[in-house]
Amino acid sequence: MSSILVISQFFPPETGAGARRIHALAESLANHHKVVVITLRPSYPSPQLFEEIDLERFDEGFEFKIKRAFGFQPYSRTLIRRGLREIFMSFRLILCASSSPADVVLVTTPSMFLGPFGWLLAKVKRSRFVWDVRDLTWRYGRESVDASYFQVKITAMIEVWMRFILRRADFVVGATPGVSQLLIAEHGIPASKVATISNGVSKKFFDEFNKKGGSTHTRPSVLYLGLLGNNHGIGILVDVALILPDIDFIIVGDGLEKQIIESRIENLGVENLSLQGYCTNENEMVAIYQDSDILFNHTKDRPVLNDTVLPFKNFEYMATGKPFVYAGKGLAVDFLAPIGCAEIAEPENPESIAAAIRRLLDNPERALAMGKKGRDFVVNKYVREDLMESYVAEIDNRLL
Length: 400
Known about the structure:
By secondary structure, this protein is α/β, with parallel strands linked by helices. Helices cover 47% and strands 16% of the residues.
């Protein structure tokens, strides 16, 4: 039995994709090894969401040890300021991990700065180093329409730094095929050191949707549930709601774009779109999904997003058995199209999204069949616990 340090910015009781992925990985690792998780106090998307949780009691429910640092709210519209705050946060997490023994140090992005600091910790401890790469944050700044010339130059320097560390990692795991391919083709990481372990959906979540449940709305309803980040672009639903006044739209979430969405709803007088608070309770989440007709997801049209993003949200939507609209391009569309479980729309195009929603509502039998196709697909291939066991097997075979 080896000692494995898992260092992550996100962890339950947070409910985002990163928290769920690293939680499932830690549980699988703990079946075979001694695991210590180093993470923050729950902070994302807002520390206030978790104030009533008895964190000490919550952490006692895990089969591994958890060491938490401080609370951290990462939002900042200034890329440079956000970067400096994340560097400081990552450094403090690594300091928190320094007293724990480790045969393997595993870090996950975001934050990308955990990579360099985690590698340095592994060098000091003479441990093997694993970098779980969920997204390529260092590329996003280069493609942001709001980035200044100075910011683009800074992010280019950070990318060189990240490449340097990635090439020295013992094992690199991409969360999507696009991430892994880009790391190999553009960052020069040897293919022999890279594996792809996708996100998935938990068995418990699948089981919840074996039960009957349908919408209680008197009018057709369209739901987005999740984070409201810059890359998500969920504010597009304000424009779609104006095009389809006979349909109710619900956004359940929080994030950097929330205030912008609230302002647009008020300024434009949109009456058929409601913005509700972020959901941290899985039972409530299941009820919200069941009380909807159509689900919606959106990814902005940016080269690196098109090439690498395969949203966890899509897997979760598929597991519900509900039809959904995905507005995006690239890897995610190539993945969804052969399955036939989603209507595809042009990203950042309200008319295209509205037309996709209409197509589903106008043919309910087809919509029902699409939902079933999606659920059958993920049940057979994307059970999170099975994927994480294969992750552990890769670590054992390659490093231990």
